[in-house]
Design goal:
The protein is mainly alpha-helical and 272 residues long. The protein has one domain. It contains eight helices and five strands. The strands form two sheets. The protein has a three-stranded antiparallel beta sheet with strand order 4-3-5, with no helix packed on it. Strands 1-2 form a two-stranded antiparallel ribbon. Helix 3 runs parallel beside helix 5, helix 5 crosses helix 7 and helix 6 runs antiparallel to helix 7. The protein is globular and about 55 Å long.
């Protein structure tokens, strides 16, 4: 029994290390991001198991691919975002930190349907948000602020489009389908629908926070709003114009993940 326990964790560490190294070599992660991904993968696979790892890898691979799709066309929008497509430790933990904690609860509290659903809801939310962010900027229609419908520039935090919501639904749907297929419990179609709903809800919360309370800065040289601080991509110092100073994009992503997890977990308690 002890040997089996140890072998499972050795396998979890080995596979997580392999995936992290591949992502680092592919420039999807920088050094700190690779180390954080190693930790997230180890806890997810080691304490959750294969099904949990498959859902996590689905998110990671699909979101990484979305970052590369139409990369040339998206170059002009990078000045808006606080970081580039190469994820660091903050981005990894913002998107996968909660997903790494839930397998621990599953392991120590015993198998519970709501914890599994919360895990899937968290990853559906961050996958939906990543897809919407990466592809929504390609919409021909100008985005509108989610809080009041006013038109904003493409790439503006909290700006939404029908294309963005469409791909967000697809991103959440991918996680929902994979989670349903690899679920160890006999969940019906309702399970997948709950995960998809949680994913769309999570990205909506993400957009709302990004529009209303996320820290946004201004570059006087480029005369543009940006998430970048203390310097814009041009090298000019930026100053804050709105939002809470501590609430950067990483925290917004985390709260989006938390919202998806909470909704899926609560519905899991109701249905299962």
């Amino acid at each position: 029994m002890v040997t089996l326990f140890r072998n499972e964790f050795v396998l979890a560490f080995s596979l997580s290390l392999l995936v992290s190294l591949i992502a680092w070599r592919a420039h999807s992660l920088n050094g700190s991001g690779a180390l954080a991904a190693l930790g997230v993968g180890f806890f997810t696979f080691g304490f959750g198991g294969l099904s949990w790892a498959v859902v996590l890898i689905t998110f990671f691979i699909s979101s990484s691919l979305m970052s590369r799709v139409y990369s040339t066309r998206k170059t002009g929008f990078s000045e808006k975002f606080s970081k580039g497509s190469q994820r660091d430790w903050g981005q990894v933990l913002a998107n996968g930190g909660l997903a790494a904690i839930l397998p621990l609860l599953h392991y120590f509290l015993g198998e519970s349907g709501w914890i599994w659903m919360a895990f899937c809801g968290a990853l559906a939310a961050v996958n939906a948000d990543t897809w919407a962010t990466e592809l929504g900027v390609l919409s021909r229609a100008a985005p509108r602020r989610i809080s009041n419908g006013v038109r904003v520039e493409r790439g503006t935090s909290g700006g939404i489009t029908w294309l963005g919501y469409g791909v967000a639904l697809l991103g959440a749907g991918l996680v929902g389908v994979v989670a349903w297929m690899f679920s160890l419990q006999n969940h019906g179609l309702t399970f997948g629908l709950v995960v998809i709903l949680a994913g769309v809800f999570g990205t909506t919360v993400d957009s709302w926070l990004g529009d209303t309370v996320q820290a946004i800065y201004y570059c006087p040289k480029c005369e543009k709003e940006t998430e970048r601080h203390p310097h814009h991509s041009c090298g000019t110092s930026t100053y804050q114009t709105r939002g809470w100073v501590w609430l950067n994009n990483d925290w917004v992503n985390f709260f989006g993940s938390l919202s998806g997890a909470m909704l899926a977990g609560l519905l899991g308690l109701v249905f299962y």
